[in-house]
Design a protein that fits this description.
It comes from Hominibacterium faecale. The protein is an alpha/beta fold. It contains twelve helices and twelve strands. Helix 6 links the parallel strand 5 and strand 6. The radius of gyration is 21 Å and the shape is globular. The structure holds pyridoxal-5'-phosphate.
Length: about 375
Amino acid sequence: MIYLDNSATTRQHDRVTEVMLQYMGEDFGNPSSLYSLGIMAEKAVKEARKKLARAMDLPEGSLYFTSCGTESDNMAIFGAASARRRRGSRIITTQVEHPAVLEACGRLEQQGFDVIRIRVDQDCRLDLDQLKEAINEETILISVMQVNNETGAIMPIDEIAKMKQNAFLHTDAVQAFGKIPLAKCADLVTVSGHKIHGPKGIGALWIKKDVHIPAFFAGGGQESGMRSGTENVPAIAGLGEAAALLSEEGSVKELRDRLLSGIRDEIKDIRVNSPDDGCPSVLNISFLGTRAEVLLHTLEQDEIYVSTGSACSSNKKGQSHVLKAMGLSDREIEGAIRFSFGKYNTAAEMDQVVDKMKKAVSRFRRLGSFR
Ligand code: PLP
């Protein structure tokens, strides 16, 4: 199998699975229990928080475990809106966010908030002038992802922080974590376990010191009252382990470059949708005159797994809202494949993928469709 869909999810590290099994088996206690089994679980959560904080390497703040990146995004956005409602009603985001942010902002819009979605250009670069103009005294929240999940474009969080005035700045760093240093100037940062060879169904929200948002869940007061609900100890311990293991990871840039130059050499009529200076974990290319979905299933026959866009979009069959926002034509969107890289990929795999892609694309172009 050649797995090139690491932006959708990653293969869990064996060491992470081992740690999780410990807390699913023998050490199964509830961190709130007073006896030693509970204290052991509480210690595991504390250790995991330390490991995650070390890996995220952010300024002074607090880290709360959640059930996923989506929950962290929702907690940040609804929390910030609720905390600052009296100060203003403007929320700024981008047209290319993950649905976890876009849909949350959409709900707030329905409740009367004034939501501005900033444009991107044909390389998925944010229109900073539009953003600057949109910021006013009424702006309570700016939510911009650090790395785009479909193109790998890196958003200028540092520059946004300089112009944000009194707004809270949230960044969805789900695709950035473990790939590039996290934005130290944000007030709220979202990460997720399953994109870093950790477990699915676990995420975290980091909140800068002196930034206050209300708790999202009402309940027993776990996570210092910020996220009630019995802690998912195995997943939390697994996320801590995955975060600690990030320090052993090398760059995937060489793999991306090798795949890109192989495709450029072998296949004509393509459009590279990822910016040159994007995060090397993602490479999005349109193979003009093909249908990405058909290419995907053709590659699948050789156990090569890629994506046509964002796998965690609810809109699996629809057109990519990111490529649309970039102003790509229907033809360009239809033929767009996302390759995304992880620690288990090799250079030899890239050569095999170039070869299989070349065959799949030329066959499609010859026959139209062959399914
Ligand atoms: N944000 C981004 C940028 C993502 O790519 C994803 C998942 O693909 C999420 C949020 C959602 O994370 P989770 O799957 O943990 O809910």
